[in-house]
């Protein structure tokens, strides 16, 4: 378990982000970023978590977050890019690019801009982390969510590049690949999926082991299939 860190978690109003915030707040200062003001206020009242209301779809608000964090929390040592949306889209039936822009902004552009804007702060710390939540769909897509697949593939590759760029610094870069989870992110049937609380616990266990890539539950199987039986994984996911 991380201790005595100052941690910024995006998408912390609900789901995995909320559960991570609750667990990490036991021994750390946690800044929970999200759009749902009431949910963030509840986290503040119940767990002493610091709320930071912002919409990552809005570029100006992303820049405001960077300015606010640099001004108020100069001891920031961990950035967890957890926020994400998943939209089923048929590109041949779209009459506007708004949905495409929104998904790329929240899933890829905002995390990238936050990393760039907060890295100077993170590099001032004795030890720091950037943690990006991706998806097995970054490696093998399904046909119904093309922009989600592409945005997570972009974040996956960014994570790998960033890890190499920061190899000789005090900033460690970690990728988390969660399974389908009971969060409301996916339109899939999740009644038999693991809870967000369980997934958050597995993430922390992986961080304790200093893993660069943390694949959880069914995502571990997906990662194995991607390496050894990619055709089988494509067939399993493409039309799921």
Describe this structure in words.
It is built from eight helices and seven strands; from the N terminus they run E-H-E-H-E-H-E-H-E-H-E-H-E-H-H. Helix 3 runs parallel beside helix 4 and helix 4 runs parallel beside helix 5. It is of the alpha/beta class. The longest helix has 25 residues. Helix content is 47%, strand content 14%. It starts with 5 loop residues before the first strand and ends with a helix. The radius of gyration is 17 Å and the shape is globular. It has a single domain, classed as NAD(P)-binding Rossmann-like Domain (Rossmann fold, 3-Layer(aba) Sandwich).
Q: Layout of SSEs?
A:
Blueprint: E1 6-9, H1 15-24, E2 29-34, H2 37-47, E3 50-53, H3 59-72, E4 78-81, H4 98-122, E5 128-133, H5 146-165, E6 171-177, H6 196-208, E7 213-215, H7 218-228, H8 230-238
Parallel strand pairs: 1-2, 1-4, 2-3, 4-5, 5-6, 6-7
Helix pairs in contact: 1-6, 3-4, 4-5, 7-8
Defining traits:
7-stranded parallel beta sheet, Rossmann fold, 8 helices, alpha/beta
In short:
This protein is α/β, with parallel strands linked by helices and 240 residues long. 47% of the residues lie in helices and 14% in strands.
| CATH class type | Alpha Beta
> What is the N-to-C succession of helices and strands?
EHEHEHEHEHEHEHH
Instruction: Kindly report how far apart the N and C termini lie.
Output: 35 Å
- What name does CATH use for the topology? Rossmann fold
Structural class: alpha/beta
How many strands appear in the DSSP assignment?
7
If classified by CATH, what would the architecture be? 3-Layer(aba) Sandwich
Q: How many whole angstroms does the radius of gyration measure?
A: 17 Å
The name of the CATH superfamily reads NAD(P)-binding Rossmann-like Domain
User: What strand line-up does the widest sheet have?
Assistant: 3-2-1-4-5-6-7
The overall pLDDT average reads: 93
User: What is the total number of structural domains?
Assistant: 1
Q: Which band does the percent of strand residues land in?
A: 5-15%
Helix content: 40-55%
Q: Tally the helices.
A: 8
Principal-axes geometry comes out as: globular
Oligomer: single chain
**Which stretches of 5+ consecutive residues score pLDDT under 50?**
none
Major β-sheet annotation: 7 strands, parallel
């Amino acid at each position: 378990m991380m201790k005595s860190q100052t941690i910024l978690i995006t998408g912390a109003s609900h789901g995995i982000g909320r559960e991570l915030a609750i667990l990490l707040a036991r021994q750390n200062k946690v800044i929970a970023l999200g759009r749902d003001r009431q949910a963030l206020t509840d986290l503040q009242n119940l767990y002493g978590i610091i709320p930071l209301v912002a919409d990552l779809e809005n570029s100006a608000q992303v820049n405001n977050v960077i300015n606010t964090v640099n001004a108020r929390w100069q001891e920031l040592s961990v950035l967890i890019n957890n926020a994400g949306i998943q939209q089923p889209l048929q590109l041949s039936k779209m009459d506007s690019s708004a949905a495409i822009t929104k998904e790329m902004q929240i899933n890829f552009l905002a995390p990238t801009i936050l990393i760039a804007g907060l890295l100077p702060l993170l590099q001032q710390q004795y030890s720091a982390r950037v943690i990006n939540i991706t998806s097995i769909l970054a490696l093998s897509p399904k046909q119904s969510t093309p922009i989600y697949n592409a945005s997570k593939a972009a974040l996956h590759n960014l994570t790998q590049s960033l890890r190499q760029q920061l190899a000789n610094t005090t900033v460690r870069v970690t990728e988390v690949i969660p399974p389908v989870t009971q969060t409301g992110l996916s339109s899939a049937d999740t009644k038999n999926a693991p809870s967000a609380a369980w997934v958050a616990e597995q993430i922390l266990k992986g961080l304790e082991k200093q893993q660069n890539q943390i694949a959880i539950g069914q995502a571990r199987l997906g990662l194995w299939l991607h390496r050894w039986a990619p055709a089988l994984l494509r067939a399993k996911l493409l039309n799921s």
